[in-house]
Protein 1
Amino acid sequence: MYRVKEAFYTLQGEGAQSGRAAVFCRFSKCNLWNGREQDRASAVCNFCDTDFVGTDGQNGGRFESAEALAAHIRRLWPGEQGRPYVVCTGGEPLLQLDEPLIAAFHQAGLEVGVETNGTLPAPAGIDWLCVSPKADAEVVIRRCNELKLVYPQPLALPDRFVDIEADHYFLSPMASPSLPEDGPDPVKQSNTRKATDYCLQHPRWRLTLQMHKIVGID
Ligand SMILES: C[S@@+](CC[C@H](N)C(=O)[O-])C[C@H]1O[C@@H](n2cnc3c(N)ncnc32)[C@H](O)[C@@H]1O
Ligand SMILES: Nc1nc2[nH]cc(C(=O)O)c2c(=O)[nH]1
Ligand code: SF4
Ligand SMILES: [Mg+2]
């Protein structure tokens, strides 16, 4: 059984695949926060900008088989154009994504991307793996396509992650978790300046912005 909070067609807004059309499959549940506001401050990850509790979002639900979920996701891709792409996110997708589901996505003609906090081992067969470390949580994934660190995090300084092998190293300015996505966000503005300065001083790191929030899409 797979539990999905929501699924929607949009453009990837972050990282090296920014601007690419994708169906986002947001799995329910995370291992670093239970999703309740009253427990945010004491969670390992306390800046999450996402509601991943339950299965009640758009196109969300409980799926009995990998094939049923893959067919559901494939139907959200518009027609036959381009290279159909699913981004598995959450919540923490590696609590649920397994090899049978990856195989079912591939069978349905989907390339498979994953956004993970890196604390759980990744099943084989993922086409694009993005690891985004959180606070002092141990990262067990040693190799990925992109490492995308939300910045600044006092317990997760960039230097700690340069030994993780990645094709791209990104800093993503931390946004306020609870503001409406289209309003002004002074905290994000100040974090964007800090991330910019860090990238200028440490040119291994590149800046990525949450483009979807800038243009006002999901
Ligand atoms: C909601 S998480 C879900 C996937 C996975 N649990 C993870 O943390 O990577 C998706 C992406 O949003 C990023 N993110 C979450 N809260 C954020 C915030 N307040 N500002 C900027 N990025 C944020 C995460 O770092 C991750 O790259
Ligand atoms: N457009 C868009 N791009 C994204 N990239 C990563 C996201 C996520 O929440 O995992 C995300 C998201 O929520 N929306
Ligand atoms: S950002 Fe990722 S790791 Fe952190 S609480 Fe949200 S879903 Fe979990
Ligand atoms: Mg998001």
Protein 2
Amino acid sequence: MLITETETETYVYYHDGGIPGRRRVLTGATAKQTFNAVPKIDMRRIYSESLSDRQSLAKEVGAACRDVGFFYAVNHGVDEALLDDTFAAIKQFFDLPEEVKMEVHNQKTEKYRGYEAFLEGKLDPGTRGDLKEGFLMGEDATDPEQNTPITPSTAKPRNQWPTHPSTTFFRPALYRYYTAMLSFSRRLLRIFALALDLPETHFDPITTTPMTNIRAVHYPPQSRDEDVGIGAHTDFCWFTLVCQSPTAHPALEVLNGNGHWIPVPFHPSSFVVNIADFLKLVTGGTWASTVHRVRNMGGEERYSMPFFFSPNEEARVSVLEGFRREGERYEEFGVGEYFQRRLEVDRTTHLDKEGEGVVRRPYI
Ligand SMILES: O=C(O)CCC(=O)C(=O)O
Ligand SMILES: [Fe+2]
């Protein structure tokens, strides 16, 4: 169940930091000041040569990251035809026969890259599983498209690519999207640094070979109210860019401070940007990693292509100087270790048979 009512209180449940959480639904006099819409920010200034333009953008971005944790990046400048072509390619992939997709099943790799079948993800344990299928790829020094130095720790292939002759279109299409999103993310990270009152290049040394993931997702229309496309959760990276198809809404929704779900429908020429758990951690909770979910109630097929961006795997981070409180001790954490821990929780929930507490990986 997504919502339960006790005699006096109603709660909404979600998965936050890999841990189940809940929030009281507040209405009337108990309601607090919170957002009721996701702000739209014109990103054209991200390409401006003038620092003061980039600073004015950073100011708007910083307010959205603090107050909402989500914003629409409008006029992002990424080629629309490239985005349309990528949507066409992922639709073509998901339309392939099951056995072609299952060749690259995600449970065959340590990083859970490849194909995730319907109902295999289960971010909300109260549901029968996520009503979606997906394909995940990301940083992989052995993929020549990434032009990354191969060090001993990254020498094993991480991505899986289908080999059936009918799938040759897929890899180049995803890599075109990957390259465009990576380049936009690097610019956005500099805006984030400015928004945190840091030098623009502050994060550059820890993002030379960033951890990245594209998750191509297909959500069929759902007919049962108790189903979810993806259960309520926060993301475990620095930030996520979501490119969503114009079809099917309402679908993506974010949870405000009063426990109400706010719709985030498609908006032309925009990505949805959301702050995720690492940026919440390093800002000591000043920036919000906002709970969100997808319920495809619009009666149409929906496709989306989240791009998840994090620092280098070896990086160690902690709460930024400007966000520390006197007298508190702050631990460092390893980005790669933290990420892998969260990945394990996220990708094995459905394998953990109730009561047994044992996670079985069927393929490795
Ligand atoms: O499909 C979407 O709009 C969002 C997907 C999402 O939240 C995720 O993959 O973490
Ligand atoms: Fe998410």
